[in-house]
Amino acid sequence: DTAVSQTPKYLVTQMGNDKSIKCEQNLGHDTMYWYKQDSKKFLKIMFSYNNKELIINETVPNRFSPKSPDKAHLNLHINSLELGDSAVYFCASSQVVQGDGYTFGSGTRLTVV
Amino acid sequence: GQSLEQPSEVTAVEGAIVQINCTYQTSGFYGLSWYQQHDGGAPTFLSYNALDGLEETGRFSSFLSRSDSYGYLLLQELQMKDSASYFCAVSPNTGFQKLVFGTGTRLLVSP
Questions:
Q1: What percent of chain B has pLDDT over 70?
Q2: Cβ B101–A103 below 8 Å, yes or no?
Protein backbone atom coordinates (compact mmCIF):
# COMPACT_ATOMS: atom_id res chain seq x y z
CA ASP A 1 0.00 0.00 0.00
CA THR A 2 2.13 2.84 -1.28
CA ALA A 3 1.08 6.14 0.31
CA VAL A 4 2.42 8.49 -2.38
CA SER A 5 3.32 6.88 -5.67
CA GLN A 6 4.84 8.62 -8.64
CA THR A 7 5.76 7.33 -12.07
CA PRO A 8 8.06 6.90 -13.80
CA LYS A 9 10.99 6.42 -11.43
CA TYR A 10 13.53 7.20 -14.15
CA LEU A 11 13.12 9.35 -17.23
CA VAL A 12 15.84 9.92 -19.82
CA THR A 13 14.92 12.17 -22.71
CA GLN A 14 16.36 14.52 -25.28
CA MET A 15 16.34 18.30 -25.13
CA GLY A 16 13.23 19.81 -26.59
CA ASN A 17 10.97 16.87 -25.77
CA ASP A 18 7.81 17.05 -23.67
CA LYS A 19 7.33 14.67 -20.73
CA SER A 20 4.92 14.04 -17.88
CA ILE A 21 5.28 12.70 -14.35
CA LYS A 22 2.26 11.32 -12.52
CA CYS A 23 1.57 11.30 -8.79
CA GLU A 24 -1.16 9.75 -6.69
CA GLN A 25 -1.71 9.66 -2.94
CA ASN A 26 -4.06 7.39 -0.99
CA LEU A 27 -3.69 9.14 2.37
CA GLY A 28 -6.72 11.39 2.01
CA HIS A 29 -4.48 14.47 2.30
CA ASP A 30 -5.81 17.81 1.14
CA THR A 31 -2.57 19.29 -0.14
CA MET A 32 -0.10 18.01 -2.73
CA TYR A 33 3.24 19.41 -3.86
CA TRP A 34 5.99 19.14 -6.40
CA TYR A 35 9.54 19.61 -5.17
CA LYS A 36 12.74 19.69 -7.22
CA GLN A 37 16.00 18.33 -5.80
CA ASP A 38 19.10 19.45 -7.65
CA SER A 39 22.50 17.82 -7.93
CA LYS A 40 23.56 19.42 -4.62
CA LYS A 41 20.51 17.80 -2.97
CA PHE A 42 18.81 21.14 -2.34
CA LEU A 43 15.04 20.66 -2.11
CA LYS A 44 12.93 23.50 -3.47
CA ILE A 45 9.18 23.76 -3.74
CA MET A 46 7.74 24.24 -7.22
CA PHE A 47 3.97 23.99 -6.82
CA SER A 48 1.38 23.40 -4.14
CA TYR A 49 -2.25 22.39 -4.67
CA ASN A 50 -4.99 22.32 -2.07
CA ASN A 51 -8.15 20.41 -3.03
CA LYS A 52 -7.30 20.70 -6.74
CA GLU A 53 -6.64 24.45 -6.52
CA LEU A 54 -3.19 25.90 -7.25
CA ILE A 55 -2.03 27.84 -4.20
CA ILE A 56 1.73 28.15 -4.71
CA ASN A 57 3.72 28.65 -7.89
CA GLU A 58 7.30 29.41 -6.93
CA THR A 59 8.43 31.31 -10.04
CA VAL A 60 8.72 28.14 -12.06
CA PRO A 61 9.12 28.57 -15.86
CA ASN A 62 5.92 28.35 -17.87
CA ARG A 63 7.25 25.17 -19.47
CA PHE A 64 6.22 23.42 -16.26
CA SER A 65 2.49 22.90 -15.96
CA PRO A 66 0.94 21.01 -13.07
CA LYS A 67 -2.55 19.54 -13.25
CA SER A 68 -4.69 18.18 -10.46
CA PRO A 69 -7.78 16.32 -11.71
CA ASP A 70 -8.80 15.53 -8.12
CA LYS A 71 -7.28 15.95 -4.69
CA ALA A 72 -5.60 12.53 -4.85
CA HIS A 73 -3.70 13.21 -8.08
CA LEU A 74 -1.15 15.81 -9.10
CA ASN A 75 0.66 15.48 -12.40
CA LEU A 76 3.53 17.52 -13.80
CA HIS A 77 3.96 18.18 -17.49
CA ILE A 78 7.17 19.69 -18.80
CA ASN A 79 7.44 21.18 -22.29
CA SER A 80 10.59 21.80 -24.32
CA LEU A 81 12.91 20.13 -21.86
CA GLU A 82 16.29 21.76 -21.21
CA LEU A 83 19.54 20.36 -19.83
CA GLY A 84 19.01 22.37 -16.63
CA ASP A 85 15.78 20.52 -15.94
CA SER A 86 17.79 17.42 -15.04
CA ALA A 87 17.04 16.74 -11.37
CA VAL A 88 14.99 14.51 -9.09
CA TYR A 89 11.36 15.56 -8.85
CA PHE A 90 9.45 14.61 -5.74
CA CYS A 91 5.73 14.61 -5.26
CA ALA A 92 4.50 15.00 -1.67
CA SER A 93 1.27 15.34 0.25
CA SER A 94 0.21 16.62 3.66
CA GLN A 95 -2.73 17.61 5.75
CA VAL A 96 -3.11 21.23 6.75
CA VAL A 97 -2.40 20.40 10.39
CA GLN A 98 1.09 21.60 11.24
CA GLY A 99 3.41 19.02 12.65
CA ASP A 100 2.09 15.98 10.83
CA GLY A 101 4.88 16.07 8.30
CA TYR A 102 4.91 15.60 4.58
CA THR A 103 4.81 12.20 2.89
CA PHE A 104 7.04 12.10 -0.17
CA GLY A 105 6.89 9.86 -3.20
CA SER A 106 9.96 7.90 -4.22
CA GLY A 107 11.00 10.52 -6.76
CA THR A 108 11.49 10.70 -10.51
CA ARG A 109 15.05 11.09 -11.70
CA LEU A 110 14.86 13.14 -14.90
CA THR A 111 17.92 13.23 -17.14
CA VAL A 112 17.87 15.49 -20.17
CA VAL A 113 20.54 14.72 -22.78
CA GLY B 1 12.29 35.18 2.91
CA GLN B 2 13.77 32.19 4.63
CA SER B 3 17.24 30.66 4.65
CA LEU B 4 18.37 27.69 6.72
CA GLU B 5 22.02 26.74 7.03
CA GLN B 6 23.37 23.33 8.02
CA PRO B 7 26.86 21.82 8.08
CA SER B 8 27.46 19.99 4.81
CA GLU B 9 28.84 16.83 6.37
CA VAL B 10 29.21 15.21 9.78
CA THR B 11 31.03 11.97 10.56
CA ALA B 12 30.69 9.74 13.61
CA VAL B 13 31.18 6.14 14.72
CA GLU B 14 28.59 3.55 15.63
CA GLY B 15 27.22 3.94 19.12
CA ALA B 16 28.17 7.60 19.35
CA ILE B 17 25.96 10.67 19.71
CA VAL B 18 25.89 13.33 17.02
CA GLN B 19 24.23 16.74 16.79
CA ILE B 20 23.24 18.31 13.49
CA ASN B 21 22.71 22.05 13.72
CA CYS B 22 20.35 24.28 11.79
CA THR B 23 20.60 28.06 11.94
CA TYR B 24 17.99 30.08 10.19
CA GLN B 25 16.97 33.52 9.08
CA THR B 26 13.24 33.76 8.62
CA SER B 27 10.55 36.33 9.07
CA GLY B 28 8.26 33.92 10.86
CA PHE B 29 7.30 30.28 10.86
CA TYR B 30 4.99 27.79 12.54
CA GLY B 31 7.57 25.18 13.40
CA LEU B 32 10.86 23.44 12.60
CA SER B 33 10.83 19.98 11.06
CA TRP B 34 13.52 17.40 10.37
CA TYR B 35 13.64 14.93 7.50
CA GLN B 36 15.94 12.00 6.74
CA GLN B 37 16.86 10.99 3.21
CA HIS B 38 18.89 7.93 2.29
CA ASP B 39 20.76 7.95 -1.02
CA GLY B 40 18.32 7.31 -3.83
CA GLY B 41 15.36 7.50 -1.47
CA ALA B 42 12.62 9.89 -0.51
CA PRO B 43 12.77 12.35 2.38
CA THR B 44 10.98 10.92 5.40
CA PHE B 45 9.58 12.93 8.29
CA LEU B 46 11.41 12.60 11.62
CA SER B 47 10.21 15.29 14.01
CA TYR B 48 8.53 18.66 14.48
CA ASN B 49 9.09 21.44 17.01
CA ALA B 50 6.32 23.99 17.26
CA LEU B 51 7.57 25.37 20.55
CA ASP B 52 11.00 26.01 22.02
CA GLY B 53 12.55 23.06 23.77
CA LEU B 54 13.37 19.44 23.23
CA GLU B 55 11.18 16.84 21.53
CA GLU B 56 12.24 13.21 21.92
CA THR B 57 11.31 10.36 19.60
CA GLY B 58 13.23 7.21 20.42
CA ARG B 59 16.92 7.62 19.56
CA PHE B 60 16.24 10.96 17.88
CA SER B 61 15.61 14.27 19.62
CA SER B 62 15.06 17.71 18.14
CA PHE B 63 15.51 21.10 19.74
CA LEU B 64 14.34 24.59 18.87
CA SER B 65 15.27 28.00 20.25
CA ARG B 66 13.44 30.79 18.44
CA SER B 67 15.30 33.48 20.39
CA ASP B 68 18.60 32.11 19.08
CA SER B 69 17.26 31.29 15.56
CA TYR B 70 18.69 27.84 16.05
CA GLY B 71 17.68 24.23 16.17
CA TYR B 72 19.36 20.86 16.16
CA LEU B 73 18.72 17.18 15.64
CA LEU B 74 20.37 14.84 18.13
CA LEU B 75 20.95 11.23 17.16
CA GLN B 76 21.94 8.82 19.91
CA GLU B 77 23.30 5.26 19.79
CA LEU B 78 24.24 5.74 16.17
CA GLN B 79 23.76 2.82 13.81
CA MET B 80 25.16 2.27 10.33
CA LYS B 81 21.65 2.67 8.92
CA ASP B 82 21.60 6.27 10.19
CA SER B 83 24.03 7.21 7.41
CA ALA B 84 21.89 9.53 5.32
CA SER B 85 21.24 13.18 4.60
CA TYR B 86 19.28 15.19 7.15
CA PHE B 87 17.31 18.33 6.37
CA CYS B 88 15.77 20.89 8.64
CA ALA B 89 12.73 22.73 7.26
CA VAL B 90 10.36 25.48 8.31
CA SER B 91 6.71 26.12 7.58
CA PRO B 92 6.55 29.89 6.95
CA ASN B 93 3.55 31.62 8.48
CA THR B 94 2.67 33.31 5.22
CA GLY B 95 -0.72 31.64 5.10
CA PHE B 96 0.35 29.26 2.36
CA GLN B 97 1.14 25.64 3.03
CA LYS B 98 4.75 24.89 2.13
CA LEU B 99 8.06 23.72 3.57
CA VAL B 100 11.32 25.56 3.05
CA PHE B 101 14.25 23.20 3.42
CA GLY B 102 17.75 23.75 4.76
CA THR B 103 20.92 23.03 2.85
CA GLY B 104 21.14 19.48 4.20
CA THR B 105 23.76 17.57 6.21
CA ARG B 106 25.26 14.31 5.07
CA LEU B 107 25.89 12.03 8.06
CA LEU B 108 28.45 9.26 7.64
CA VAL B 109 28.48 6.60 10.34
CA SER B 110 31.52 4.32 10.40
CA PRO B 111 32.03 1.02 12.28
A1: 97
A2: no
